[in-house]
Design a protein that fits this description.
Receptor-associated Protein; 343 residues; disordered N terminus; 75% helix; 12 helices
Amino acid sequence: MFRLVSVVASIFIVVGFLSWVGQCNPKYTEDAQFAPKQPSEWEFRQRRANQVWEKAQRMGLSPQKLDNLKKDLRAHDEKAMKWKKMKRDGGDPDGEQEAAVRRELAEIMRRYGMAKEAAFEEKNLKMEGTGAKKFEDMRLNRLWHQASLNGQFSTAELEDLRQELQHHQDKVDEFRQLMDDLHGSDDINRVDKFKRMDVDEAEEAKDRKVRELELKIKHKELNSDYKRLEVKTRREHEQSGFHEPRLHQMWMDALKSNFTEDELQSLKEEMKHFEKKLAKHESIKEEAIKAELQYHKAKKSGEHHDPSYFESLKERARETANTVKKHLTDFTDRIAARRHTEL
C-alpha cells in the first residue's frame, strides 16, 4: 500500500513539471489547475498534439470534426515521433524537418478553428528562420525579439538583458537535466518508470520524492523569474502595471474593448485587488511544497514528523485555487463579452 501511494503521488508531481516544460502558452491558463491530462491518459505520444486535442474538445466541435481531427493528429503524431528519434540520433542539423513538423501542426490547428494558436506557432517559426533564435526556450526568444525591436533599450541595456536571459536559459537547462536524470528524457518514459518500479524500492522512492519536491520548488522559482523578465521587456505602451502575465493580457484586451473610462478604472481596481489574492495563493502553494519537502526529508532520515501541517496547507491551496479559477473565468468572460458587442 505504501508503495502504491508513493507511486501515485509521484506521478501527479511529474505531470505538474511536464505541463511547464512543454512550453504550451495559452492566453490566460498558466496555472497548474489548467494542466493537461496525465500522460497515461493521452491520446497521442506528442505533448503538443494532446494539447491541441484537448482544446478542440473544449471548443465543442462536432463528433465528425473531432473524428477527422483525431485522424489528422494521429498521422502528425507519427511524423513527430520519427523526427524526435531522428533528432536524438543526430539528424536534422539545420532544423528543416522540425520546421516542417511544426508547420503541419499549425495547418491542422487552422483547419479546425484554432487560427490564433496557428499564428502563434508560425510567428515563432518565422522568427527562428530569420536568425532571431538565440535561446532554446521559446518564451525567452519571444522576449528577446520583442526587446530588440521596441527601441526602448540602449545597446548596453540590450547586452545586459541578453545576459539575464542567458542566465535564465542556463537555469532552465539545469532544471531539464535534473528532470531527465530523475525521470528519463521522454515525456511518456518519465511516468512509465514509476510503473516498472519493484516493491522493494521503498527507500529509492523516498529519495525520489524528496528530489521531485526540490525540483518543484526550482520550477516555481524559474516561473517567478520568467515573469520578472516578461515585465521588464514590455513595450512602454504595454506597461499595464500588472506583474501577472494573465492579468496583463486581460488588461490589454480590455483596453481594446468598449469599456468606458470609469468602467476601465473600476475593472483595473478589481484586477489589482485580485492580483494580490493570486500572489497569496502562490505563496500558500510554495509554503505547502516546502512543508511537504521538510516532512519527506525527515521521513527519509527515519525521524517522526507530523504530516498534518503540510496537508492542511495543500488543502488551503486547493481552496484558493478554486477561487482563483472562478475570478479568472469571470474577468475573461466579462472582457470577452465587451469585445463581442463591439463587432
